What we know:
Elements: H1 29-35, H2 45-61, H3 64-91, H4 96-109, H5 113-128, H6 133-162, H7 171-197, H8 201-209, H9 214-242, H10 256-278, H11 282-286, H12 290-323, H13 340-361
InterPro entries: Virul_fac_BrkB
Organism: Nocardioides iriomotensis
Protein name: YihY/virulence factor BrkB family protein
Amino acid sequence: MRGPFLISGVAGRFPAGLAGHRRGVDTNPDTRADTSPDSPTELTKQSWKYVVRKTVREFADDECTDLAAALTYYAVLAMFPGFIALLSLVGLVGKGQQTAQTLLDILDQLGAGSIAETLEPTLMTLATADQAAGVAFVVGLAGAVWSASGYVGSFGRAMNRVYEIREGRPIWKLRPWMLLVTLVVLLLAVVVALALVLTGPAAQAVGDALGLGSTVVTVWNIAKWPVMLLAVIVAVAVLYYATPNVRQPKFRWVSVGAVLAIVVWIVASAAFGFYVSNFSSYNKTYGALAGAIVFLLWLWISNLALLFGAELDAELERGRELQSGLPAEEQIQLPARDTRNIEKAEAKAREDVERGRRIRRHRG
Length: 364
């Protein structure tokens, strides 16, 4: 249960009075480290039941389906400049056209055939313009960073809702931090994208261009799968830790929520792919747009998995706090990273209330 929301138009989402440290929060990290269970295995059976039930309820209460839709929108915005940067990077070694075709094939295999058809003329033009590869890489990289920062910012707002806190960091502090997080996540995304693109003939072609032997290419074709998994795990860990306006006890390379999110994503993607292939009628309903619709739904499912994992991590933190004796029934007891914007917003809200009160008393 949440207290009244002081300054937002959405009632009941966050507790009021968040200026300064969060009310009732134990901000002493040493005390928390001594009293809280360090790992999920130290939680009691009763605590685990509470955590699981709370995770499911909070996932619904926080309207994560809507949050996932917003994240899908920002993910789509970041895709095109990302493709340009990736294609230009490989184009610098003279294999841009082959890489472009591989990218289009991957999109087609993901069910985004119509998107691939839309992107094909632009990607092929970039692939054949070798003299502009360097410029395209810089422009594409800048566009990818800026567009992807919108996704990271939206993810941070979603995480704030998960942890029941408002954003308190001023823009001059928040924006550079989110751009830094974006760069880290983008770097990891590039690793995954390169691992997907540089496979089979494409990997051999790049290996030949760089003077690498066939043995190195063979090793890469085997090692790319654990590399991709590791990159995804680290990216999720960074998003979970760095984006919300809460100071978590410590950075976890692998959290229970992150593992669950990745497992749910893999299983849900496989199940969705099976459904689309065997039972759906998207082609009859959407015609030429069916591929794009399927791809957007897959992105939405992926973001749902990420948010469900975040909810589990938040409720595990609540469970650890409750088991250690902290009053976390209504609010997770983690201090805010910054509260200056919250204080300013509350001051403005009090001014508006006072102005409204004067109007009411004097009938205008």
